[in-house]
Write a structure and sequence with these properties.
Shape: flat
Structural class: mainly alpha
Helix content: over 70%
Radius of gyration: 19 Å
Distance between the termini: 43 Å
Mean pLDDT: 89
Strand content: under 5%
Order of helices and strands: HHHH
Number of strands: 0
Largest sheet: none
Low-confidence stretches: none
Length: 103
């Protein structure tokens, strides 16, 4: 099956992706409504969030350019120092921008 990437085809793809995202998110909430949140389940959920983030970041760090590596290092160091994600992400974006601009 192929969908043409004309204006209507692009809109169809966006709507399909939106529906898939909505179903997976609502499905997760529905499935978790049957699970008793014990300390063990809570620690699993917290570990999964970190695992997904690491799975996204590590390949970029290994195969990325100097800007990606600078962003990773700056974000990690800022997160370790102040333990607040939004400023850490901002510092990482700034580091990547500076390395790519001056590099």
């Amino acid at each position: 099956m192929t969908i043409e990437t004309t204006s209507i085809g692009t809109l169809v793809l966006i709507v399909l992706i939106m529906l898939v995202t909505l179903v997976t998110r609502l499905g997760g909430v529905f499935a978790m409504s049957f699970v008793k949140i014990s300390p063990r389940v809570e620690s699993f959920i917290n570990a999964m969030a970190s695992s997904v983030l690491i799975a996204i970041i590590v390949p970029m760090a290994v195969s990325g350019d100097a800007g990606a590596l600078a962003a990773l290092v700056a974000t990690a160091m800022t997160m370790l120092a102040i333990r607040k994600p939004l400023p850490a992400i901002s510092v990482g974006m700034l580091a990547a921008a500076l390395v790519r601009y001056f590099g």
